Amino acid sequence: MLDRLTSSFRKLANVRKTGLIARCATRLDYRANRAELNKKLHERSIKNDDISIVEKLEKVGIVIIPDFWTSEKCDQARLEIDRLIVEYPAYVNKNAKADQRIYGANNASALIDSFGSDPRLGSIATEFNRSDTINAFTLAARMPASSGNLGSGEGWHRDAFFRQFKAIMYLSDVGLENGPFQLLEHSQQPGQIIKDMKRANLGYMQYRVEEQQIARLVRQDPQRLRTFTAKAGTLILVDTSTLHRGMPIQTGTRYALTNYYFPIDAVDHSMYEKFDVLPKA
Asked: Which CATH architecture has domain 47-275?
């Protein structure tokens, strides 16, 4: 019965996009997703110290861990990214306007792979997803300042609806002018999503959000907007179903690594084709 009701609201929401029907469809979608999530059973392998990280991720959407890597290791990783961009120009992603990206950099660099295969991060991802999870690939990104850039990710957006876990490492010091990561807290929570849809007239399954819509939400509660300036070596664990972006970079060059975690049964060849992942040598 619930499935039929949800399907009917989805069809209406896809036509009307905004308003009460869209909010009802969204509420039903998240209720169904929660039911599926609660069915998932897995053997807990996470350390007790990291349980609080998962709990904060579920509540707020983001956790910051300083000094995850040393500055020396970050220096080496930046050189590795420069090398990969020169050696594998065919795999420098052409869809990213602001930054130079190589998906699957872990397949061509032992140093980057040490981040991609970090067992602690893997166990956090599995606990967060409540199912066996792997890092499908690691993105290496170099973002130089350029005129009119919209920042990493090309503006405010969600990567997905429903939970999705990523681990982002700053490899360079990031100040306000270097394109820091920004996030709207609690924007992944179903109840908050419904409120945000009403306050900013957000559409059903609207992935990209306009600046003026974000401004409306921030005016309602300025403390929700978080800007993460930090030193090289800082780790950001984030549910990318939140509303987030990289601020437009005004000066310097920002380097970062990002692990893309997915449940094992969601990873297949089509995903690697979609992201044009650099294959293993």
From this structure: Sandwich (2.60)
The tokens for 208 are 């990209």
Residue spans per domain, the chain: 1-39, 47-275
Q: Taking a C-beta distance cutoff of 8 angstroms, is the pair 182, 238 a contact?
A: no
Q: What is the pLDDT of residues 93-111, one digit of tens each?
A: 877 666 899 999 999 999 9
Q: In this structure, what DSSP letter does residue 92 have?
A: B
Strands (E), the chain: 62-65, 100-103, 133-144, 165-170, 181-184, 225-228, 235-239, 243-246, 253-263
What's this model's pTM, rounded to 2 decimal places?
Answer: 0.88
pLDDT digits (tens, 9 = 90+) for 11-52: 555 545 667 878 888 787 767 777 777 666 555 667 777 899
Tell which phi-psi region holds residue 9, choosing left (phi > 0), alpha (psi between -120 and 50) or beta: alpha
CB atoms under 10 Å from CB of 266, counted, come to 13
Length of the chain measured in residues: 281
User: Is the pLDDT at 9 greater than 50, yes or no?
Assistant: no
Residues 262/134, Cβ–Cβ less than 8 Å:
yes
C-beta neighbour count of 210 within 10 angstroms: 14
